[in-house]
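User: Just a sanity check before I run the rest of the batch. Below are the structure tokens for the first item. I only need the designed sequence back.
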């Protein structure tokens, strides 16, 4: 049976940055994200008796399937099957947008592969499964604001929806700065930080506080508080990278230009806040009513084609 699933990317407002268990992908702290509408991955999976290995194509191009095979082995074990699969993925995450496509990729694969194998997993178990592919993927099972509860191990580390229907006009404007390959993967970056940053214990402690306050801000629809918490949490994450040994960072000169423009907008009374992940692109959190003014200001340094707008999006679902 061939099954096709769609999953959207998410942007973390309180970030996941460190693992307690590398094999099972258990994080050091809980995280909270917003699933985005415009950026998603469609994946179809079909287990076929005649195949002698898993086949994987991305955007129509055949790719090495080792990571997919590792993930499908989890699904085969759950379903009690041994057949190989044909996996075809299309990324609708604009290339170079710096929006983690591993989140939408593994959330879509978890849903398509488990369904094609004849399993009907609960959302909790789907989230646990997606987590094994890439930590941030466990949050893309749900739409809107989503919390990944760190838990203590495989059974209790999964995402739960915090506010699935977002009935306010929060937006995320991604500023696409650079198409260079990521120098240091999230996986390696967070591992270095956990092992060497003297500030790591403070990060874990303050993330716990940040999640509590962020939830209050979301419930109160207090955008300025939400933005402040998200921006400060992102800067704390990047401070870990600067304090690691060897130290590293994801900033490009234009990253700092974008951050400064956002600060100038804020000084001029427009509420907008930045967040950054494991790459140079800056993502601006804002309200729909301010998008035009923010774009006009960013035009001082960037082309309109570099600006990609997203709104809250839905959770992973089957298309066919
Ligand atoms: C900075 O989920 O890509 O985007 O679990 O090793 O695959 P792995 O890492 P990944 O890391 C995402 C890190 C982040 C913050 C976040 O999304 O919470």
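Assistant: Here's the designed sequence for the first item:
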């Amino acid at each position: 049976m061939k099954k096709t699933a769609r999953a959207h990317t998410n942007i973390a407002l309180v970030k996941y940055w460190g693992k307690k268990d590398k094999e099972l992908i258990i994080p050091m702290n809980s995280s909270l994200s917003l699933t985005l509408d415009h950026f998603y991955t469609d994946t179809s999976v079909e287990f076929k008796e005649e195949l002698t290995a898993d086949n994987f194509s991305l955007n129509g191009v055949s790719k090495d399937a080792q990571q997919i095979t590792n993930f499908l082995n989890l699904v085969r074990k759950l379903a009690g099957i041994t057949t190989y699969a044909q996996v075809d993925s299309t990324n609708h995450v604009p290339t170079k947008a710096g929006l983690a496509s591993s989140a939408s990729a593994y959330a879509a694969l978890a849903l398509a592969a488990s369904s094609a194998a004849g399993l009907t997993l609960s959302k909790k178990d789907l989230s646990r499964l997606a987590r094994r592919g890439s930590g941030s993927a466990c949050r893309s099972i749900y739409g809107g604001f989503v919390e990944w509860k760190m838990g203590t191990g495989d059974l209790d580390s999964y995402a739960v929806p915090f506010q699935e229907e977002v009935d306010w006009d929060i937006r995320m404007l991604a500023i696409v700065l650079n198409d260079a390959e990521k120098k240091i993967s999230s996986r390696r970056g967070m591992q270095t930080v956990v092992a060497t940053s003297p500030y790591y214990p403070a990060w874990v402690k303050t993330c716990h506080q940040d999640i509590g306050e962020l939830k209050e801000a979301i419930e109160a629809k207090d955008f300025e508080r939400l933005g402040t918490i998200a921006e400060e949490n992102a800067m704390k994450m990047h401070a870990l990278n600067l304090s690691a040994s060897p130290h590293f960072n994801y900033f490009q000169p234009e990253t700092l230009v974008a951050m400064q423009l956002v600060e100038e907008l804020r000084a001029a009374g427009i509420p907008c806040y930045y967040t950054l992940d494991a790459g140079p692109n800056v993502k601006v959190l804002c309200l729909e009513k301010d998008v035009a003014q923010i774009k006009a200001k960013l035009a001082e340094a960037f082309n309109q084609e570099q600006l990609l707008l997203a709104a809250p999006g839905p959770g992973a679902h089957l298309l066919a």
